Amino acid sequence: MALHLSAMLGFETVLALTPQYSVNPAVVPDERRWSYFRNRIEQFHFDRIDGLTPERSRYVIVHGDGPGELDHALRFPQLPGLAHFILPGMDHQLAVTLKARGVLRPLVRAVIEGRGPRIRRLIEAQGGLFRSAYDTARQERPGLEAIR
After folding, report:
1. Are the C-beta atoms of 87 and 126 separated by less than 8 Å?
2. What would the DSSP string read from start to end of 93-122?
3. Which pairs count as long-range contacts for 44-48, CB under 8 Å and 24+ apart, including other chains?
4. Cys-Cys with 131: which of 72, 84, 85, 108 at CB 3.0–4.6 Å?
5. What residues have CB less than 8 Å from 62, skipping those under 6 apart?
6. pLDDT per residue over 46-65, tens digit each?
7. CA–CA distance, 98 with 121 (Å, rounded to integer)
8. What is the pLDDT of residues 130-142, one digit of tens each?
9. How far apart are CA 3 and CA 53, in angstroms?
10. What does the pLDDT look like over 2-54, one tens digit per residue?
11. Helix, strand or coil for residue 17?
């Protein structure tokens, strides 16, 4: 929701950990998690993540590439000024894992302070890649759902 609100309210900075691109089954039909909840939504007021404004807000989006995560991660637009990272081998529990490793607090601080190089070092130390580098690695290794 922070991603949607950023465009409406002009947030300075947004950190999104494993955000869903859409909970609408028509938009992400391969998503099988949370079907109990998704089936109870009568109207999708926010159909998908769009309208991001990297010219006004700093975005740091972090996904794992575990089951179900890439279905969402790869639908996010690649925009200048949007820092989108993929952490191979991580799943929807990415935030829990980063916290257990002592990385979550420094990452949040670096995002708040706008310290791009520090954000990148923290993510890369966990094996993370910029989305573009992840896409390239997947192209070089066809047939793999995720690089591990």
Report:
1. yes
2. THHHHHHHTT-HHHHHHHHHHT-HHHHHHH
3. 46/1, 46/4, 47/22, 48/21, 48/22, 48/24, 48/75
4. 84
5. 15, 16, 17, 18, 84, 85, 86, 87, 94, 123, 128
6. 889 988 988 899 999 999 99
7. 14
8. 999 999 998 887 6
9. 9
10. 898 887 888 899 999 999 999 999 999 988 888 888 889 999 988 899 889 88
11. strand
* 94 Cβ neighbours under 8 A, 6+ residues apart: 17, 18, 62, 63, 64, 87
Structure tokens at 133: 């580098």
CB 94 within 8 A of CB 109: no
Cα(127)–Cα(116) distance, rounded to whole angstroms? 17
DSSP letter for 55, please: T
Name, in order, each residue with C-beta under 8 angstroms of 72's C-beta and a sequence gap of 6 or more: 18, 19, 20, 21, 22, 28, 31, 63
- Among the residues of the chain, which ranges form H helices? 2-9, 35-38, 69-73, 94-100, 104-113, 116-125, 131-140
CA–CA separation, 42 vs 59, rounded Å? Answer: 30
DSSP letter (8 states) at residue 123:
H
Cα–Cα distance measured from residue 40 to residue 57, given in angstroms and rounded to the nearest whole number: 32
